[in-house]
Amino acid sequence: MAGRRNGSLRSSVEQPLPKASELPDPPDCEPIRPRRVLFFGKKKSRSCCTGALVQSLRNQGLKVKWVNCSLLKRWIGAWGMRYVVRYLRKRYRPDLCFVFFHDLPHVLMQEFTEELPTVVWIEEPIKYIDSAQVDYVRQARLVCLSTPSLVWAYRSLGVQNATFQMSGFSPQYHKPHRDFGQGHYDRDLVYIGGPGSMGNRPEFLAWLSERYDLEIFGTRDSWLPYMKRYKQLRVRGEVRPSRYAEVCARSKIVIGLNQTHESSLYYSNRVFLTLACKGFHLMRHVPGTERVFDRDEHLAWFHDRDECLEQVDRYLGDQAERERIAEQGHALVMKSHRYDRRVTEILEIIAQERQLSCPLDLVDEVLEIGIDEQNETAAVLYPRDGRVDFEPARRCLRHASGFGGG
Q1: pLDDT digits (tens, 9 = 90+) for 99-137
Q2: Sequence-ordered alpha helix ranges (H) in 175-318
Q3: Angstrom distance (rounded) from CA 255 to CA 214
Q4: What backbone torsions phi and psi does residue 290 show, to the nearest 5 degrees?
Q5: Domain co-membership, 208 together with 331
Q6: Residues 196 and 106 in one domain
Q7: pTM exceeds cut of 0.85
Q8: CA distance 7 to 301
Q9: Within a domain: residue 181?
Q10: Closest CA to 40 of 127, 99, 115
């Protein structure tokens, strides 16, 4: 067995990753039709994804108790938080636990999954899946993942109840601004979001800023190091939902960039948020996009820098076409990509009325399968550059994070 020094993964030729077609079928489970849901998640004030999921569960007629463990820990400490959460579990008597990413501490997750059917929602792609992350979701009734590659990887590591679910939006939080279609455009190009921890997003936007009038809306602290490096970057501060809609309505083009553009069918939630606000969206192409959107009907995309320049030049001068596409994109996401629809599908799966989803023909090759520090099988999905270098902070669950939507 070959070793990898100064890293958390050792290559393992004895345990190759199964082909997608060789994965076993998920186990049979008893149908579940919940009435009371205990939901764990942070507030997510910018994307409002947790609030949207809670509202969608309530729209299904379910009673939902929303618990923010991070906030409780800040107020009363770790011991107090665990005591309160256990008390709420006993007092509320839920018949389903719904966890956003890893927002329920591991020790409580282990306790609850032994007593309650649990759904885990992971919206972001994860570049490194170690034994701690697998153990976190191993007993979950359902694990919802944002890319087919993640579903394949988790199933390969023994988590068979994994299914593919894209992100979405709620019109309660993101909807068109009154200025849409009025011709009041203050900006040519905007990008909404942070610099990200992967990829070349700052460098690309700096390159684009040299050619066009481009403004960035994101937290200034996260962009500050790149503003010093690229003097042409202009950052206007972060936007919450109402401001998000105004920026979309008063900008000719909203640029879309994921941190990875190689993972099939993965989209930052900003794709859905922008279309929900009737923004004209020009995004970097992601494999499989043709299955979800029609080009020049719902949004536009580019594959490389030259095509990006062509698309920007084309649409900057065609207001009528931009607004037509924005209208069509809004109609599509209202019909097919609301969180209400995602939650409906989840409830149908746990009621045994719908099959798990994983478009295996779109699964990417996982970079490497190996052994982590606990001598357990682990998988690496990103980056796809032939190297795998992990800093120590990535070795354990408490430091693990998604990286696609920053």
Answers
A1: 999 999 999 999 999 999 999 999 987 878 888 999 999
A2: 201-209, 220-229, 241-249, 269-276, 305-316
A3: 9
A4: -60, -20
A5: yes
A6: no
A7: yes
A8: 37
A9: no
A10: 99
